[in-house]
Every structure is written in C-alpha cells, then in structure tokens.
Amino acid sequence: MLTAITFVPMIGAALALAVRGSTRTTRLIALTTVLAELGLTISMYVIFNAQGDTYQFVQRAPWVSAFGIEFLMGVDGLSAPLVLLNGILGLAAVLVSWRVETRVREYFMWLLLLQGAVMGVFASLDMILFFIFWELELIPMFFLISIWGTGRKDYSAMKFLLFTFLGSAFMFAAILALYFSFPAGERTFDMTALIHKDLTNLIVPSSLVFSGFLVAFAVKLPIVPLHTWLPDAHTDAPTAVSVMLAGVLLKMGGYGLLRINAGMFPDELAAAAPLLAMLAVVNVLYGAFIVMRQTDLKRLVAYSSVSHMGFVVLGLASVGAGAAQLDGTGLNGAAMQLFTHGTITGLLFVVVGLVYDRAHTRHIADMGGLSGRMPLIAIGFMVAGLASLGLPTTSGFAAEIMVFLGTFPAYGLATALCAFGVVLAAGYILWTAQRTMFGPPLDRWAHLEDATRVDVAAMGVLIVPIFVFGVYPALLTDVFDAGIAPIIASFAEGASLVAGRGG
Amino acid sequence: MGITGRDLFLIAPELALTVAATVVVLSGLVSRQRQLTLGLALLGLAATFAFGIALWDDVHANGAQSAFNHSLVVDKFALYIKFLVAGTTALVLIAGSEYAERFRPYESEFTGLVLFSASGLMLLAAAADLITIYVSLELATLPVVALAAFVRMRVAPIEAGVKYLLLSAVSSAFLLYGFAFLYGASGTMQVVAGDSGAPTIAQVLAADTAAVPFGGLAVMAGAVLATAGFGFKLSMVPFQMWTPDVYEGAPTPVGAFLATASKAAAFAVVLRLFYEALGGSSADWSTLFAALAAITMTIGNLVAIVQSNVKRLLGYSAIAHAGYMLIGVAAVTAHGQETPDAAGISSVLFYLGGYAAMTLAAFFAVLVLTQRSGDERIEAMAGMGRRAPLAALALAVALLGLTGIPPTVGFMGKLFLFNAAVNSGLVWLAVVGAVNSVVSAYYYVGIIRTMYLRQPTGDTTPVATAFSGRLALVVTLAAVLVLGLWPGGLLEVARTAASGLVS
How many interface pairs between A and B have CB atoms less than 8 angstroms apart? Predict the structure, then answer.
C-alpha cells in the first residue's frame, strides 16, 4: 500500500511527461493521479488502527544486502497523518496550478515527483531510504522554483538547494555514525530496530550524532537562524510550490525531529530542551515581529510560517519537564501543529496565489476592499487567517492549546512568551485582512473576477480538514497518540535507567 | 625460467589488446575507413573481455595466479580493474570515433595509441613487483603524451602534451626514488607473494624491523615519495596542477580516457602497493591519506566553483573526486581493529566503476555539445536542454551523480566511501566529504541550470549527434541510473575483488 502511495505520483509524473497531448490532457493526468493518491491515503488513514501495532502496512525487502540497506516502508501514528496531509495538499497543489501555461508537461511532472518524494520520506522506515527520498525532493523543488518562479528565482532556488543539502550532509554523517556504532552483526539502518537500541554509547559522542540530525531538521523546519532560505524560496516560488513547501516540506523537518531526535535520543533531547525552548521563543516572536514589517503578501505568510513552526519546537521542549510529568501532550501538540499548519498555511498560500493571479501584485499597500470584488477568495482568506491565529473550532486552536498545556509545566516563561506570539498573530492577520480584503473598494480593482470553480475546489480541499479536525481533533490526536506513546515510553525508560544507575 | 603457455594465457587480455593495437595501426596503411578502425579495435576489446572472463573463472576456481617469474599477478582485483579499463576504453573509442575524423590522416594511429595505453594500464593493475609497476606505468603514460597533443596546429593540445610529458617524467623520478628506498629497506622488489617463496616487502618488514637500515625511516621516506609519484597520476593535491590544463587542452576523448581508465589503474596500484606491501608496516600512511583526501577534495571543489570552461571544470571535479576516493584508501582498518579491512578497498573499487560511468557520460555529453561550435564555455551550454535533449539529459544526470544525489550511482558510491570512513573511525573525514558534496552542488547544478533555464544566445538549431555518440551516451546514462538503483551486483563483485588484497 505504501509502495503504491509513494510510486503512484511518480508513475503519474512519467505519464504527464510522456503523453504529448494538449495542456488539458496533461492537467487531467495530473488531477487523476492526485485524486487516486488522495483516495489511497484516505483509505490508508481509515484502515490505520490506532489501537493496533505500532507500525502498520509494513513492507520489507532486501535492497543492498551487503550493507543491510532495506526497502522498508511502514507508517505509525506519527507518519500516517502526515501521509494523509501530503495527499490532501497534492490535490490542492494541482488544482491551484490550473492556470500554468508554460512547459506544462514538465511542470506537472516535477510537481508529482515532488509529492512522491515527500511520501517516500514519511513512509520510509529505513534510514538510507529515508535519506534518499529526503534528497530526491531537492531536484523537483529546484526546477519548480527556478523555471516557474518569479523575481530572484535563480538565487532563491540555489539558496534552497544549498541550505537543505548542507543540512543533509550532517544528517548523512550522523546516520553512518549510528550504523557503525554497533558490532558487525547488529548493524542496521532499520528505524524500528534502532529506536529500541541503547544509543548512549556510540562511535562518536551521541550528542554529536543528535546535533547532526538536529541541524538537518532545523534547516528544514526552519529554526532561526537557519531560516533565511525560506522567505526567499516562498516568495519566488509558484503558488503550488509554496503550498507544498509550507504544507509538507517544512513538516519533514518536524517529523524528523519527532521521529529521530525525540524517538531515538530521549536523553539528548531532554538535555537540549532548555535550548529548544529558547529557540522556540525566538522563532515565534522574531517571526511574528518580522511579519509586521512585511509589505509583500507572500513574504508575510512565509514569515508567519517561521513563527508558527516555533510552536513545534516549543512542543518538543516539553520533554524538559522530566519523565515523571511527561504525558505527551506537548509532543502531540507539536505533531498536531505540523498537520494543521500544513492545511492552514497551504490555504493561505492558495489564496495569496489567487489574488496575485488576478491583481498581478502582492504589494499589500496596493490592495484594499478586495472582498467586494472577490467574496469567495475573501472567505478563504478569512478562514485561513482565523485558523492561523488559533480561533476555536479550527484545527489551529487545538494544536496550539496542546503545545501550551504540554510545555507550561516545564518552561512556564517560554510558554507565556510564545503565547504572546498568538496575540501577535491575531494582530498581523486581522491587520492584513483589513488592509487587503476590507476597507473602501478601489476602482482599479473593479475588473477583478472572483474564484472559478477550480479555485473554489482548491480552497475547499483545505478548508474541509481545517474544520473537521478543529471540531473533532480526536480524529487526529488519537492517531498521533499512538505514534507519540512509544516515544514517551522511551523517555520513561531512560529516566528509570538513570535512576537505577544513581541508586 | 622460460615463458610457458600458461604465462601467455594469464596475460591474454593484454596480449589481445596489443595485437589489436598493432593491427589497427597497420590497417591504417591500407584503409582509412572509420568503421574499419573502430571495428578492429572493438574486436580486440571483445577478445580482451572474453579472456578476462575465462581468467576470472580460472582464478575463482584455482585462486590467484602469478606469471612471468612472479612479476605479474592475476587475481580478481587485477581482473576487476582490467574489465573497467577495457570497458571505458571501448566506450571512449565508440564515442570518439566521430571526433577522430579530425585527426585525419592519423585516425588509426590515434586508436592504436589508446589501445597501447590501455594495455599498459591493465598490466599496471596486475604488476606484482616494483619494476613491473614502473614499466607498466611508462607504457601507459607515453602513448597519452602523444594523444594529448594529437590535434596539430593548435597551441592548447601541444601545451597539454608537453605539460603531461614533463610532469610524468618528474613523477616517475619521485616514484623511482621512493622505490629505491623501499628496496633499500627491504632488499626485495616483490609486492605480491609468488609461489616460489621469494620474500615480499611486507614479509621482510614484518619479520625484522630492527634489521631494516634506518629502521622505519627508510620505509616512511619510500612511502611518501611513492605517494608523491602516484599523486600525479591520481590528480592528488599538491600534484594536481597539470590536470585542468591537460583536460582542457587535450582532445575530449583523451580527457575522458585520462579521467577514467588512467585513474582507475593508478588507484589500483596505490591500493596494491600500500595494502599488500606496506599493510603491516609501522608507517602510518592511513593518516597521510586521510589528510591528503581532505585537502584534495576541498581544493578541487573550491577552485571548480570559479571555472568558466566546462572541460576545465571537469578537470577540477576530477581532482575533487580523487579526494573522495582517497577516503577509501585511508580507511584501512576497521574501528578498533589492527589488521587491514577490505571495506575501504571495495568502496574505492565500486566508486571507480560508478565514477567511470558518470565521468564518461559527462565527457561524452560535452563532446557532443561542443562538437560543432568548439565553444567550451559554460555559457555556451545555454539552451542545450532543447537543442540536444539526450546529451543535456546525460550531462545533467551525470552531474547530479557527481554531486552525490540519489538515485544515481554517485550517491551509492559516496555512501560506501563514507561508510568505509566511519567504519574505520574517520567520522570527521566523512563529514568533510559530505560538506564538500554541498560545495560541489553549487557548480554542478549551475551547469544544469545553464542548460535548461538559459536561452541560447546565438545558434538555436538542434545539435546533430552521430549514432555512435548516442549509443555511448545511452550506455553510460543507463549505467549511472541502474547502478544507482541496484548497486548490489557491482558491490558484490567489488567486495570479492577487494578481499584478495587483505587476506
């Protein structure tokens, strides 16, 4: 099943490139692919049993047996929702690309390849396979930004590539160090086995291995000060790519932090928790203050992503409370934030893209009173905006409240400061809405058309999960709980080990 | 001791090549048909392959054999390199057959010289004593001097030829001086043990270091001087100066031959000399090679960034890749072990194979892209994605492979090299290598960007490619991808070949 989920987009990509039909044919191929993909991911999510085995849909085949590299796929409670998220965003990305006219076949090929590569990241349980998909995603992104982007697209694409590649260089070394820390018979790249091993006595200090992974994922999430590629990439990328970038690519970073840094190195993470709490505060507040200063609508949303990803870091810092008090609320909130931010910011970028397509500007000062001209788009913007500032009944609220509840016992001050970020978010979202959507209608925008049916579909695909998981978050949290529980257990184990040694 | 039929069988691959070379040169007196020259050469190479396979079976059944009074050894290690040299030679001749037209009326001499050099390289891989190493090296080098200067009436090739001649002479002097020290210290020329019971350098050094004149000092001096001598052939810093000049000035097929076949044999002899003759000696050459690896790849990559000529850039990239492969040479012993380990050797052997595929693909693509215009500037590659789709694709995939991005053989090769480094406790070297890959991404991806994203400036007509050129491109391109997805087979062969050197 997961193999199908990973490779259906890749087959679709090959078809999109190979079939030399009209633009319409290519679009339909892409649409069929992402619809099939969404169907597969939804059925996977429905079949997934939160009370069942830790890892489900496991597929295992030898690949490079000399080094114990396996083709090992499977999902647990942590990755299953993210696979679903990628399915949802893939559909939105294709719908929002409906107006792409240049080099259409290549465009959809890269877009589908991107979706497939990200699926591979979430579905891989073998370190090397995980790393391969992690790297594979770079190539489509590079081409998508540098061919179909705007502005300083060459610069942004290269910056994105080099930042991510530099991060993954450290991850690569960390993976190998992990592998060779065991005697010949016990070496493995299998994450499900590594998570149960004692990783405190490695070939190099385990804090170094931990840092290698941390750097790679911090670039991707991003954590300040490794975030500078993000505003550039977002601003210059085409709409669909911004959607994918904010929606799932950043989530790869958060996923890695939870899966590897939290799952395999509980002691190291607990030791790093104060630092993470501090970085979270910087991320949230720095991001939010920078947002205030933005004049470009897309850059504004990009920095709001930086700010919101701070909550994920804060949720991770909740482990600083010590094993006794740790109930997983913070980590669960962080995972939840990954999912909800994916849909919400995805929607924000969709709306910004729709506005830009019509007005041909992203300059906030030029806008005003757009809601009268394009009410449907304005509705989309308000839904995304309100969810983004954490309004109850939207999924944004559920995620943030869980992060705050989970981390407050550990770092009260940091949590309070981050909560202030929510206030700032309310400020900049409402202020932006007022400056762009409301106010007196401007004559020069009188010709603008509202969303087409395709555009409404693109927004609808993202609005539905925002409300569904907002009103009934248990649909998500139960699954995430199943994924977080083993991580929490490993913290408890570590603590009892320490206690045992102490006694 | 006379020459037996057995001896002739053991060097049948080289004999076949020498005969083919002679026949090719003689045939030039009768006919100047391009197809005839190529056909005869390929026939000789096919015979080489056939004999090679027969020998592989023989060695598999009866173990390593020595020939000509123990001056040559035929083991799987030597055969692996012979296959590699013969394969790359065949591809170079196929791809270069159209290019060779411009050497008229000396095309058959050109082909003959390539074959003579190849036979020298194959003997080098099998050389079992210091004298044979030296003689084979000269046999391999001297034809290349003529080849590098083959285009008369132009300054750059003549300069390349003279430079190669002078620096080869200097490096030979270093090498002989180093060999003299080794002989002085051990009193024997024998690198590999024959069945006569004559002592090898390793045995003498292991038996009685106290009796060695000047103790370990002479061995150290010999090792360092031999390293310097081989350093020229490997394009290792600080002996890399000639590489960019010769690659840029020499005819493109000669550059391809130098970068792949010549380098493979040079690495083979370095591995054999250091692992077999000095494997047990007290001289710590692992640290020496680790430092040289780090310096070589860093300098190669940094200087490559500022290059504007694509062949010159490939020259610097060859230096960088020599650095990566030196990692495998430096990874002598497994972490915490005393005896040498085959992991480093096998990773170098695998990388030589993959590197040959990637580098040939890159050189052949450059050959096609510059054939008509003769313009080797990187800017001249603009728009080639449309003008020459196959060559541009091959170059793009080859460059991604050289960067180390999956799913190419370059990624797998680096994985195995860094694996070997971490295995022997050189985690820092793996990190340096990984960070170097990031640096290299900048200039490799820069070429891809130029090919696909820049508009051609002058000529916009499609670039015609001969069938032979297309064939060579498709074969190398397929090798880069297939070996990247299914590296297991080649890796197994490389491991078998490597195991003979340390047992």
Answer: 85
